[in-house]
Specification:
Elements lengths: L4 E3 L1 H4 L6 E3 L3 E4 L12 E3 L1 E9 L1 E6 L2 E6 L2 E5 L4 E7 L4 E8 H7 L3 H13 L2 E3 L2 H18 L7 H22 L1 H5 L4 H16 L6 H7 L4 H12 L3 H19 L4 H7 L5 H12 L3 H6 L1
Parallel strand pairs: 1-4
Antiparallel strand pairs: 2-3, 3-10, 4-9, 5-8, 5-10, 6-7, 6-9, 8-11
Helix pairs in contact: 2-5, 3-5, 3-7, 4-5, 7-9, 7-10, 8-9
């Protein structure tokens, strides 16, 4: 068996007919020159694909999905993808966004966080004609803006459009939510309640025991269920929200590091600095200077 190959935006930059912003963003509509691997590949980015014609069968984390005209598929960073079959007439539009790019454009992460749970549970959604038109309009506008390489605010404009597109997709998924809920297990329901709880309180509470008590569970039972459903521990989910918020505040606010430490209810700035470096490999000051 082949090892799982890791692919990111830097890997695909050598292919023609694509527009890029560094190693953070790629947009294209010609898939003919791009090898979609017939063996499991870990994509270290999020990919939005809207099928316009033909069909394609893919596996996302080993589960098979079929793309036909009008189907939108959204994959998340670190998911394992594999192409099973692709028709000769398959066409679509493709937007690839790095994890860091997503972190930078989601300062209101607690609002959009449920979307990522929905995407993980149901990566493919069939669009209505007006929804399909809306996604294509975003694609067209993004493609035009990315081509403006002399514009000093090209990246910021693109980030704003991507944030708007995520809200558009969130609305589409909410419209399809009843179909999602029919297949939800008890553990998945528990996981969603846990995500909602930490989205409300992660600035104040980082203890798994706190959320377990709030949900009338033992910490061990909560952690086991969360790990089984999501592949990440309860503690990792809490830390990911805290770090995302810290990154957003460091990049998009004028708050001092001390003020951010206070905002996130750390005992002191030193403890916040050690926590941030443990999870990112750099100090808050170094991250802000990037």
């Amino acid at each position: 068996m082949k090892n799982i190959k890791n692919v990111d935006i830097a890997t695909i930059r050598r292919f023609p007919a694509m527009d890029f912003i560094g190693n953070d963003f790629a947009i294209f509509d010609n898939i003919g020159d791009i090898p979609l691997f017939g063996y499991p590949t870990r994509l270290n980015a999020s990919c939005l694909t809207l099928c316009l014609k033909g069909h394609c069968r893919i596996r996302i984390n080993l589960k098979e999905h079929e793309l036909t005209e009008g189907v939108l598929v959204v994959t998340l960073p670190e998911q394992i993808l594999q192409q099973v079959e692709r028709s000769d007439d398959f066409t679509g539009v493709f937007i690839v966004v790095s994890g860091q790019f997503i972190d930078d454009v989601l300062p209101t992460v607690q609002q959009l966080f449920p979307l990522f749970f929905m995407i993980k549970e149901q990566p493919c959604v069939r669009l209505k004609p007006e929804e399909m038109e809306a996604v294509q309009e975003y694609y067209s506008f993004l493609q035009k803006k990315v081509k403006l390489k002399d514009n000093p605010f090209r990246k910021e404009i693109t980030q704003g459009l991507i944030l708007s597109l995520f809200y558009e997709i969130y609305g589409i998924y909410q419209g399809n939510e009843p179909a999602v809920r029919k297949t939800k297990t008890r553990k998945e329901d528990l996981f969603e309640r846990f995500i909602r709880a930490i989205s409300e309180s992660y600035k104040m509470e980082r203890s798994v025991a706190y959320y377990a008590d709030k949900m009338f569970l033992t910490a061990k039972h909560l952690s086991t269920a969360v790990k089984e459903v999501s592949g990440k521990t309860a503690g990792e989910w809490i830390d990911s929200l805290v770090i995302l918020e810290a990154k957003a505040l460091l990049k998009s606010s004028e708050m001092s590091i001390q003020e951010i430490s206070d905002e996130l209810h750390f005992a002191n700035q030193s403890f916040f600095g050690k926590y941030f470096k443990h999870h990112t490999g750099m100090s808050p000051k170094e991250y802000r200077k990037q």
